[in-house]
Amino acid sequence: QVQLVESGGGSVQAGGSLRLSCAASRSIFSITAMHWYRQVLGKQRELVATITRGGDTNYADSVKGRFTISRDGAKNTVYLQMISLKPEDTAVYYCAAGDVDYFSWGQGTQVTVSS
Questions:
Q1: Nearest to 24, CA basis, from 40, 1, 47, 50
Q2: pLDDT by residue for the chain (115 residues), tens digit each?
Q3: In terms of DSSP bridges, do strands 91-98 and 103-105 run parallel, antiparallel, or are they unpaired?
């Protein structure tokens, strides 16, 4: 198991940017994959971005070209850089760690984009 602590959420106007951080309790290179999800009130949770232990990345079509997932192994931290934000990006964003033996979630952080 791994504990995850998220930060960086907040309120911005459309076209603005935010960077979310996810600090893990141990090396992220010991984890198969790190993910960012988001969930809008009353809707299904959506996988936004993934980065594997080998560095491969994947993105949801709705955020391609605007969001970037990255990592800092020395800090045991994964980031989600978000630019050109739209009101439809408003959601609670969750960090997650997936491995062969477990799946762990962060507490979630609110992102609100106003028009």
A1: 1
A2: 899 999 999 999 999 999 999 999 999 998 999 999 999 999 999 999 999 999 999 999 999 999 999 999 999 999 999 999 999 999 999 999 999 889 999 999 999 999 9
A3: antiparallel
